[in-house]
Design goal:
It is a single chain. With 155 residues, this protein is α+β, with helices and mostly antiparallel strands. The protein has 1 helix and 11 strands. Its main location: membrane. One of its GO terms (molecular function) is signaling receptor binding.
Length: 155
Protein backbone atom coordinates (compact mmCIF):
# COMPACT_ATOMS: atom_id res chain seq x y z
CA UNK A 1 0.00 0.00 0.00
CA UNK A 2 1.48 3.31 -1.07
CA UNK A 3 0.78 6.21 1.27
CA UNK A 4 1.80 9.60 -0.11
CA UNK A 5 4.33 11.17 2.20
CA UNK A 6 2.77 14.08 4.02
CA UNK A 7 4.08 17.25 2.42
CA UNK A 8 5.21 20.05 4.73
CA UNK A 9 6.47 23.43 3.64
CA UNK A 10 8.46 25.43 6.17
CA UNK A 11 9.30 29.14 6.10
CA UNK A 12 12.21 30.88 7.81
CA UNK A 13 10.28 31.57 11.01
CA UNK A 14 11.29 35.24 11.03
CA UNK A 15 10.56 38.31 8.91
CA UNK A 16 12.92 38.65 5.98
CA UNK A 17 14.20 42.21 5.70
CA UNK A 18 15.37 43.80 2.49
CA UNK A 19 16.64 47.21 1.48
CA UNK A 20 15.00 49.10 -1.35
CA UNK A 21 16.73 48.51 -4.69
CA UNK A 22 18.55 45.38 -3.52
CA UNK A 23 17.84 41.71 -4.17
CA UNK A 24 16.27 39.47 -1.57
CA UNK A 25 15.84 35.71 -1.22
CA UNK A 26 12.64 34.46 0.40
CA UNK A 27 13.57 31.14 2.07
CA UNK A 28 11.19 28.18 2.06
CA UNK A 29 11.80 24.43 2.10
CA UNK A 30 10.15 21.04 2.26
CA UNK A 31 10.26 19.12 5.51
CA UNK A 32 11.34 16.36 5.58
CA UNK A 33 13.79 17.15 2.81
CA UNK A 34 12.79 15.67 -0.56
CA UNK A 35 13.28 16.39 -4.25
CA UNK A 36 11.00 19.26 -5.25
CA UNK A 37 11.79 19.25 -8.97
CA UNK A 38 8.65 17.28 -9.81
CA UNK A 39 6.37 19.40 -7.64
CA UNK A 40 4.36 22.41 -8.64
CA UNK A 41 5.76 25.37 -6.74
CA UNK A 42 3.93 28.66 -6.57
CA UNK A 43 4.78 31.83 -4.69
CA UNK A 44 1.71 34.01 -4.12
CA UNK A 45 1.06 37.45 -2.65
CA UNK A 46 -0.86 36.58 0.48
CA UNK A 47 -3.37 39.41 0.49
CA UNK A 48 -4.45 39.40 -3.16
CA UNK A 49 -3.55 35.78 -3.96
CA UNK A 50 -1.82 36.86 -7.12
CA UNK A 51 1.03 34.80 -8.58
CA UNK A 52 4.54 36.08 -7.91
CA UNK A 53 6.29 33.01 -9.38
CA UNK A 54 5.03 29.71 -10.76
CA UNK A 55 7.13 26.60 -11.44
CA UNK A 56 5.88 23.28 -12.78
CA UNK A 57 7.51 20.25 -14.45
CA UNK A 58 10.92 21.85 -14.51
CA UNK A 59 9.66 25.05 -16.09
CA UNK A 60 9.01 28.58 -14.91
CA UNK A 61 5.55 29.65 -16.06
CA UNK A 62 4.93 33.35 -16.48
CA UNK A 63 1.37 33.33 -17.82
CA UNK A 64 -0.28 34.26 -14.54
CA UNK A 65 2.56 36.28 -13.06
CA UNK A 66 1.69 39.72 -11.66
CA UNK A 67 3.03 42.50 -13.85
CA UNK A 68 4.84 44.06 -10.90
CA UNK A 69 7.11 40.99 -10.69
CA UNK A 70 7.76 40.47 -14.42
CA UNK A 71 11.44 39.77 -15.01
CA UNK A 72 12.24 40.15 -11.30
CA UNK A 73 11.76 36.66 -9.87
CA UNK A 74 13.84 33.50 -9.93
CA UNK A 75 13.20 30.18 -8.25
CA UNK A 76 16.66 29.09 -7.14
CA UNK A 77 16.93 25.80 -9.03
CA UNK A 78 20.15 24.62 -7.37
CA UNK A 79 18.29 23.86 -4.18
CA UNK A 80 15.19 22.20 -5.67
CA UNK A 81 16.56 18.66 -5.57
CA UNK A 82 17.25 19.15 -1.85
CA UNK A 83 13.74 20.45 -1.19
CA UNK A 84 14.57 24.15 -1.15
CA UNK A 85 11.95 26.42 -2.74
CA UNK A 86 13.82 29.71 -2.26
CA UNK A 87 12.68 32.62 -4.42
CA UNK A 88 14.90 35.53 -5.40
CA UNK A 89 13.23 38.87 -6.09
CA UNK A 90 15.49 41.52 -7.62
CA UNK A 91 15.36 45.28 -7.20
CA UNK A 92 13.24 45.60 -4.08
CA UNK A 93 10.37 48.10 -4.21
CA UNK A 94 8.28 49.45 -1.33
CA UNK A 95 5.30 47.63 -2.88
CA UNK A 96 7.08 44.26 -2.38
CA UNK A 97 6.62 44.64 1.37
CA UNK A 98 4.15 42.18 2.89
CA UNK A 99 3.25 38.52 3.18
CA UNK A 100 4.06 35.86 0.62
CA UNK A 101 2.72 32.32 0.54
CA UNK A 102 5.10 29.59 -0.57
CA UNK A 103 3.13 26.60 -1.89
CA UNK A 104 4.18 23.18 -3.15
CA UNK A 105 2.18 20.21 -4.28
CA UNK A 106 1.44 17.40 -6.68
CA UNK A 107 -1.51 15.09 -7.30
CA UNK A 108 -1.12 13.50 -3.85
CA UNK A 109 -0.37 16.36 -1.51
CA UNK A 110 -0.31 20.11 -1.05
CA UNK A 111 1.22 22.39 1.55
CA UNK A 112 1.89 26.05 2.07
CA UNK A 113 3.53 28.45 4.48
CA UNK A 114 3.72 32.20 4.90
CA UNK A 115 6.91 34.25 4.56
CA UNK A 116 6.95 37.88 5.72
CA UNK A 117 9.00 40.43 3.81
CA UNK A 118 9.82 43.87 5.15
CA UNK A 119 11.28 46.37 2.69
CA UNK A 120 12.96 49.45 4.10
CA UNK A 121 14.52 52.57 2.61
CA UNK A 122 18.32 52.38 2.28
CA UNK A 123 19.45 55.08 4.74
CA UNK A 124 16.87 54.57 7.44
CA UNK A 125 17.42 50.82 7.40
CA UNK A 126 19.13 50.70 10.79
CA UNK A 127 19.25 54.42 11.48
CA UNK A 128 19.07 55.45 15.13
CA UNK A 129 17.22 58.69 15.94
CA UNK A 130 20.56 60.39 16.75
CA UNK A 131 21.89 59.47 13.29
CA UNK A 132 18.91 61.12 11.67
CA UNK A 133 19.36 64.20 13.90
CA UNK A 134 23.09 64.34 13.11
CA UNK A 135 22.44 64.05 9.38
CA UNK A 136 19.90 66.86 9.62
CA UNK A 137 22.34 69.10 11.54
CA UNK A 138 25.12 68.43 9.02
CA UNK A 139 22.83 69.25 6.10
CA UNK A 140 21.70 72.50 7.76
CA UNK A 141 25.32 73.35 8.57
CA UNK A 142 26.41 72.76 4.98
CA UNK A 143 23.53 74.85 3.66
CA UNK A 144 24.25 77.75 6.04
CA UNK A 145 27.99 77.69 5.24
CA UNK A 146 27.18 77.64 1.53
CA UNK A 147 24.75 80.50 1.97
CA UNK A 148 27.29 82.45 4.05
CA UNK A 149 30.00 82.05 1.37
CA UNK A 150 27.54 83.04 -1.34
CA UNK A 151 26.40 86.18 0.52
CA UNK A 152 30.01 87.10 1.41
CA UNK A 153 31.10 86.80 -2.24
CA UNK A 154 28.12 88.86 -3.36
CA UNK A 155 29.21 91.87 -1.27
Amino acid sequence: LHCPAQLRVVGPGYSVTATMGQDVVLPCHLSPQRDARTLEVRWIRRTISETVHHYRNGEDLYGQQMGAYAGRTELLRDGLSAGSLDLRITGQRPSDDGQYTCTAGDADAYAETIVDLEVSAPFFHNAQPWMVALALVLVLLAVSIGLGVYLYRKQ
